[in-house]
Amino acid sequence: MGGPEPHGYMGWWGHMGGPKQRGIVTYSVSSYAQKPFAGALYNFFFNTFRRVSSQAIFVILPASGLIYVIDKARARNEYLYSKAGREELEAMM
After folding, report:
1. How distant is the alpha carbon of residue 79 from its chain centre?
2. What's the rounded Cα separation, in Å, for the pair 30 and 36?
3. Contact present, 17 and 11 (Cβ < 8 Å)
4. Where on the phi/psi map is residue 5: left (φ > 0), alpha (ψ -120 to 50), or beta?
5. What is the pLDDT of residue 1?
6. What angle do CA 16, 17, 22 make, to 5 degrees?
7. For residue 73, is pLDDT > 90?
8. What is the pTM of this model?
9. How far apart are CA 77 and CA 85, in angstroms?
10. pLDDT tens digit string along 37-72?
11. What are the contacts of 85-89 at 24+ separation with CB within 8 A?
12. Distance, CA of 23 to CA of 51 (rounded, Å)
C-alpha cells in the first residue's frame, strides 16, 4: 500500500532518506576566525560621543530653563517669607 512501515527508522533531521536538495548553499565562519569584540572599545567611545552630542541640545536647553525658573521661584519664595516680603504682601491685600 505504500504507507509507513511500523518500527521503521526514517533517519534524523536532514537525513530522512529523501532526495538530496539542490541549490541550498550554507556558509559559516570558524569560531577561531571570528573577532566578536573587534572595534568594540573604539566604537563605544566615538559612537557614545556622537549620540550624546547630537542629543545634548534637547536636554541642555530645557534643563537650563528649568533650573532658571526654579532658582527664581526659590528666591521669590525666600523674599516673600522675609519681613520686607510680608509687608509687601500685606500692602497688596
Report:
1. 44
2. 12
3. yes
4. beta
5. 52
6. 90
7. yes
8. 0.49
9. 9
10. 888 899 899 999 999 999 999 999 999 999 999 999
11. none
12. 43
Predicted confidence (pLDDT) at residue 7 exceeds the cutoff of 90:
no
Q: Give the pLDDT confidence score for residue 33 in this predicted structure.
A: 78
Q: How far apart are CA 66 and CA 93, in angstroms?
A: 30
Annotate 12-22 with b (16+ C-beta within 10 A) or e (fewer).
eeeeeeeeeee
Nearest to 77 by CA among 68, 85, 69: 85
Degrees, nearest 5: CA angle 71-80-92: 130
Residue 18 Cα distances to 12, 13, 14, 15, angstroms: 12, 11, 9, 8
Among candidate residues 24, 8, 7, the one with its CA nearest the CA of residue 16: 8
pLDDT per residue as tens digits for the range 8-43: 666 677 677 666 777 888 888 887 778 878 888 998
